[in-house]
Design goal:
Layout (H helix, E strand, L loop, with lengths): L8 E3 L16 E3 L28 H5 L4 E4 L8 H5 L7 E5 L11 H8 L5 E2 L2 E2 L2 H4 L9
Parallel strand pairs: 1-2, 3-4, 4-5
Antiparallel strand pairs: 5-6
C-alpha cells in the first residue's frame, strides 16, 4: 500500500477505515455513523460519536497522540475503567461522553475532569478551576 502524504482531510461513510494508517499528513478525519465497534487500529481519532464503542484502547495508544479532541458521545461506554486509559494522554484537551451509560453515573463529570489532567473541556463545557479541585478550600490568611 503506497503512502498518501498529501491528504489533509477525509470523510468516511460506511467504508473500510483500515487504510488510515497510510495517511501521514491527515489533519481532519470524520468517522461518524460508520458502526465502528473497535478503535484500536485507528491512528487518527477526532470524531467517533454515534457508534457502538464499549471499550477504549489502553494507555500506550493514547500516550503518543498529539493535541486532540475526542468525541465519544452516543456510544455504549458504561464503565469508568474504560475511560481511565485516557488519563495517560498528556494532550487530550476535549472529550464528549454524554448520551453514554457512563454519563448517567453519579459524579461522572467530577471523576473524569479530575482524572484527566490535560482536559480543558468535557461535553461542550469548559472545566473550571473550582470543578477540578472539587470541594478543596484554600486556608484563611
Amino acid at each position: 500500500m503506497p503512502v498518501v502524504s498529501k491528504v489533509l482531510s477525509v470523510t468516511f461513510w460506511n467504508a473500510n477505515v483500515g487504510h488510515l494508517q497510510y495517511c501521514f499528513s491527515l489533519k481532519i478525519c470524520t468517522l461518524s455513523n460508520n458502526y465502528i465497534i473497535n478503535i484500536d487500529s485507528l491512528g487518527v481519532v477526532l470524531e467517533l460519536h454515534a457508534h457502538q464503542i464499549r471499550h477504549l484502547p489502553g494507555p500506550v495508544f493514547w500516550e503518543g497522540m498529539k493535541k486532540f479532541l475526542l468525541y465519544l458521545h452516543d456510544n455504549e461506554i458504561g464503565k469508568m475503567a474504560n475511560v481511565h486509559s485516557l488519563s495517560f494522554s498528556p494532550n487530550l484537551i476535549g472529550l464528549t461522553l454524554f448520551d453514554t451509560p457512563m454519563s448517567l453515573k453519579i459524579a461522572c463529570r467530577h471523576i473524569v475532569v479530575n482524572g484527566i489532567f490535560s482536559l480543558k473541556a468535557l461535553g461542550y463545557c469548559v472545566s473550571s478551576d473550582e470543578e477540578i479541585v472539587g470541594r478543596w478550600k484554600l486556608p484563611d490568611k
